[in-house]
UniProtKB/TrEMBL annotation:
SUPFAM superfamilies: CRAL/TRIO domain (SSF52087). Residues 1-139 form the CRAL-TRIO domain. PANTHER family: BCL-2_ADENOVIRUS E1B 19 KDA-INTERACTING PROTEIN 2-LIKE PROTEIN, BNIP - RELATED. One of its GO terms (biological process) is apoptotic process. It comes from the Eukaryota. Gene3D superfamilies: CRAL-TRIO lipid binding domain. This is PRUN2 protein. PROSITE patterns: CRAL_TRIO. Pfam families: CRAL_TRIO_2 (PF13716). GO terms for cellular component: cytoplasm.
Amino acid sequence: GYHGEGFGAILLFAACHLPDSSIPRYGYVMENLLRYIVGTLERVVADRYVLVCLSGAAVRGQIPSFGWMKRCYQAMDRRLRKSLQAVIIVHPTWYIKALVTLSRPFLSPTFSGKVRFAASLRELSRLVPVEPAHVPEPV
C-alpha cells in the first residue's frame, strides 16, 4: 500500500500468485480468498483507494471468473465501493479486455468508469506512484 498526496491506499493484487482453476477444491479456495480480500479491505481502507491488478505472468487458469469478481464487488460494503477510485489492470490479456468489455452492460456505470487498463509498468507509474520493489518479480 501507499499513502501520499492525492492518493489514499494503493493496493496491489498479483494474479500470478492466484491458484490455478484446475486444483482440487478450487471453489472453496476462491471463496475463502474472497472473504480474506473483503476483510482486509475493511481493515486497511480508511479513505479513498486504488486497486491495481497485476495480470502479467498469470496463466488463464489463474484469472478469476467474472462471477467471482462480481461477488467480490458485491461483498464490499457501500463505504468501500464509494471509496474505490479506480481499478487499474496492468498487462491485460485479450481475455481480460474482452471479459471487462462484455461485462460492462451488467455493471453499474459508476463502477465501469473506474476500470482502466495499463499496458506496461511505465504506464502504471504515470497513473499512480508504485515502487518497483512492490511489484512481484514474475510481473
